[in-house]
Amino acid sequence: MFLNNKINEKVLIADSLTKQSILSTFEHPNFYGILYFKKANGTLTLDGQEVDIQDHCIFFYYPYQKLTIRGDYEGCFLKFHPDFFCIDIHARDVGCQGLLFNNFFNDFLLCCSLVEYDQLYGFYLDLRQELQHKNIGQLDMVASYLKIFLIQAVRIKQSKKSKAVVNKDNLHHQIEMLITKHFMIEHSAEFYADTLDISISKFNRLCKRYFQNSFITILNLKKIAVAKNKLFLTNLPIKEIAYDLGYNDALYFSRVFRKHCGISPKKFREELKQNRLI
Fold first, then answer.
1. Does some domain include residue 116?
2. pLDDT above 60 for 277
3. pLDDT in the model for residue 2
4. Is the same domain home to 52 and 70?
């Protein structure tokens, strides 16, 4: 099932989750995605971080992230274009950025209880019901379902995260908080190691152990997430975006962007500004 905008461009698709649908869906990933795993036994790798997937998990995808899913699974998915419903615009109201989407700290799956999953899956069913017949205000109605779903998902995730912090190694939590707070300004491992009063080598080892990525990779992924926001929502030159993010060489920024996204910043901007699913 799908939704078209006012000029008849496809902006949202709801479909069953199968290996074949995943292959075709992510051929041109210029969209946000929500994958419901009703049943699953396998692994999901996102931007170099691999986690096990199991029954009643929900995964949130941001445009042009590198994704691989292995194993057996069934469920459903939504994909929608940022011009229809932009996570970055709604992030302040909903609080999902960095929690559900663009979570680079090895915590990007929402693993639900059966009750939680059924509650969130209910929004998907309501949305599909709305898509069955074209009606007045349909675009606004579907956007409302999405926003309410995301708010509820954030509440569930925050509750689980608060409980998990109590059981986490204190350094694990401190590193995550420090990088989240300072990544736009502080780009050296030395700053974080000194703040934590540990050696640089230990800091780098802990990043790899806790987050499955090096400190530099985490830093670049977080800066690229900001770059994607600016590429879509502004008309700033790519060189200026690179400089704002601490890259003095725009060509180097483009290489880093392509390495992690499989596409250049210029092409990313072009494909998202088409205002439709490809």
1. yes
2. yes
3. 92
4. yes
